[in-house]
Design a protein that fits this description.
The chain has 226 residues and is of the alpha/beta class. The protein has 10 helices and 8 strands. It catalyses: O-phospho-L-serine + H2O = L-serine + phosphate; O-phospho-D-serine + H2O = D-serine + phosphate.
Length: 226
Amino acid sequence: MLKLLVVPYQRCPHHTMSSLSQTKELFRRADAVCFDVDSTVIKEEGIDELAKFCGVGDAVTEMTRKAMGGSMTFKTALTERLSIIRCSREQVNKLITDHPPQLTPGIRELVERLHQCNIKVFLISGGFRCIVEHVATQLSIPLHHVYANRLKFYFNGEYAGFDESQPTAESGGKGRVISMLKEQYGLKTVVMIGDGATDLEACPPASAFIGFGGNVIRPQVKERSL
């Protein structure tokens, strides 16, 4: 079943994993697995899809590439991208209805297997909670296991910014979420899986990082994951 999820590169604080059997063993020892969402659990980058839907796709896609590669702080990139998109509540809802996120092949089976093994599964995303909750529901992941950014809207539905107090709104935020989860649930072995710089920097406090390149390969992440 695990072979359905391509894992081309990974990193641990003390050693480098080098085989599928070792990766499976890492899953077996995990108390929890934390997944990035955009370009990992789903095929798309949610903010890029929202930008395309709002007619500003090209400008935002380039900024996403820089943010995921680590060449600008995540919060700066998020602020600038949303200032371009300025989506309404109606546009966000219509995006989810007309173009729902597409799950990466194999992810549903992997999450089901982790649940069968009583391994906690969390979604930690720099994307938007309204989209990530839709993904979590598809995968039977409890909504209180979702950590993502919250869009804000005025009473008339127009864009009003985002909740800057969320840890996922900043570089290093995913690591802070994992530290909180370890303390809250008494977790010892936590695996972080993702494709971007914000996922890589979450290890530590994550016990191990598995870089996922099945949808897109970030050169900076691949280089540091070997």
